[in-house]
Design brief:
By secondary structure, this protein is α/β, with parallel strands linked by helices. It has 2 domains: 335 residues, Alkaline Phosphatase, subunit A, CATH 3.40.720.10; 74 residues, Arylsulfatase, C-terminal domain (2-Layer Sandwich). It has 13 helices and 18 strands. Strands 9-8-5-4-10-1-11-12-2-13 form a 10-stranded mixed beta sheet, with helices on both faces. It has a 4-stranded antiparallel beta sheet with strand order 15-16-17-18, with helices on one face. The protein has a two-stranded parallel sheet with strand order 3-14. A hairpin with an 8-residue loop joins strand 17 and strand 18. Helix 7 crosses helix 8. The longest helix is centred in the middle third of the chain and has 26 residues. The N and C termini lie far apart (56 Å).
Length: 457
């Protein structure tokens, strides 16, 4: 069903149709973004996983628009999150690589989130939203880089890059669980904690005057692959012949799926479902060496192949988006969520960003944006990368990439070789190679103006 109403008009119809009297702020839809961590494209049953059951995420994807051509802004965590919160390419957001929890005597962190760019929670807050983050942060441990420093009214989660144990919640022996700025010491599996806290938050919003923007960022299924024991045993009993490694990952994902189901059920229970926009996505592809399935794409996390960049994504809004729609016609990126959600929420963006709104696509209206090149960058240390960046660029169906700074660029044509199996030599299509390479060099030159290191105080 094609909509002829603006998001605001739809919200008004929903409000008055329910027989209630609503303030202008309350008529705006709530916004919930569920970002999971390292979920492989093919690690949902809706995308063909033969040994995994994900009924709740599948149901969420079927309840709105499923976007099969969605790209994460980076094949690793921090840069994609920075793009989501700024609407910028990661290297223009100051986060070309992973912001890590520090180890004494080691240079392991490769980014510094810009503080001079209005964040998504900031612009939505100015538009009348209460803003919250529950779960993983991964963009800084101290002021001015904590969630409450950059526009979130409420934070309940984990500041660090990853947990060394889903039950102990420590990283390198240090504690990073916080409620706002206060240390907390909860007990339980991190996935369950983040789900419980989200259910509590949604219950508190039932009678709130303002709409909310909630960023729910799960750690799962990031390493360590540590599902609850009962979930692991269930998978082993059900899937005859499954390896221990694969069973553990499947169980961790199915446990995550159960959490997503609890969140959706809470939205429905509290009467929030119809007028809440729910985005589901991942920060990058799955980690191949722990058993992730990124089929039908090549590669996985850390790599510029499609398997490291393509992420199953959906947008649901029962009051406005027809269920059961699927699109794979447009190259959309994580950074595009910034302007899309801002437009839905009536927020003003008066500064330049790289992302662009795809709201017309959600509303089943004409959507023919100007063609644009897409870029990916990752800066990383250790002997494999040497503290140097590696990149990919895509223009139309043509893609240029390399997976370390020390290998030549390779060119592929995705419309005829979606699996990136056959490199097209430069001499076979020199004009395309030069077009991709020059566009990438222009991006690198522009992004080079942005510092990514913080000066010591």
């Amino acid at each position: 069903m094609k909509s002829f109403f603006t998001p605001f008009a739809l919200a008004l119809l929903f409000c008055f149709g329910s027989g209630s009297v609503c303030s202008q702020e309350k008529t705006k839809p709530n916004l919930l973004v569920i970002m999971v961590d390292d979920l492989g494209y093919g690690d949902l049953s809706i995308y063909g996983a033969p040994d995994l059951k994900s009924p709740h995420i599948d149901g969420l994807m079927e309840a709105g628009l499923r976007i099969d051509s969605f790209y994460a802004n980076c094949p690793v965590c921090s840069p994609t999150r920075a793009s989501f919160l700024t609407g910028l390419y990661p290297d223009r957001a100051g986060v070309p690589g992973v912001i890590r929890t520090p180890l004494p005597g080691q240079s392991t962190s490769w980014g510094n989130l810009r503080n001079d760019v209005p964040s998504l929670p900031s612009v939505l807050g100015e538009a009348g939203y209460d803003t919250a983050l529950i779960g993983k942060w991964h963009l800084g441990l101290e002021a001015p880089d904590r969630p409450t420093d950059v526009g979130f009214d409420f934070f309940h989660g984990f500041l660090g890059d990853m947990m060394d144990d889903y039950y102990k919640h420590l990283r390198h022996g240090k504690h990073y669980m916080r409620k706002n700025e206060e240390p907390i010491h909860p007990e339980g599996h991190a996935t369950d904690l983040f789900t419980d806290w989200t259910v509590d938050y949604l219950a508190s919003r039932k009678s709130a005057e303002k709409p909310f923007f909630l960023f729910l960022a799960y750690n799962a299924p990031h390493t360590p692959i540590q599902p609850p024991r009962d979930w692991l045993e269930k998978v082993k009993q059900r899937e005859s012949g499954i390896s221990d490694k694969r069973a553990a990952l499947v169980a961790l994902i199915e446990h995550l799926d159960d959490g997503v189901g609890r969140v959706v059920n809470s939205l429905k229970k509290e009467g929030l479902w119809e007028n809440t926009v729910v985005v589901f996505t991942s920060d990058n592809g799955g980690q191949s060496n722990v058993g992730a399935r990124n089929i039908p794409w090549r590669g996985g996390k850390q790599e510029m192949w499609e398997g490291g960049l393509r992420v199953g994504t959906s947008v649901t809004w029962p009051a406005a988006i027809e269920e059961g729609r699927i699109t794979d016609e447009h190259d959309l990126m994580t950074m595009d969520l910034y302007s899309t959600l801002a437009e839905i929420g009536g927020a003003t963006i008066d500064h330049k960003i790289d992302g662009r709104s795809f709201l017309p696509l959600l509303m089943d209206e004409a959507y023919q944006p100007e063609p644009r090149p897409l870029f990916w960058v990752r800066l990383e240390g250790n002997q494999k990368y040497g503290g140097l960046p590696y990149h990919a660029a895509k223009i139309g169906d043509w893609k240029l990439l390399r997976n370390t700074p020390f290998e030549p660029y390779q060119m592929f044509r995705l419309d005829t070789d979606s699996g990136e199996t056959t490199e097209i030599p430069r001499q076979k299509a020199p004009q395309k190679y030069n077009e991709l390479f020059r566009a990438l060099m222009a991006h690198i030159n522009e992004a080079g103006k942005i510092p990514w290191q913080r000066e010591n105080p």
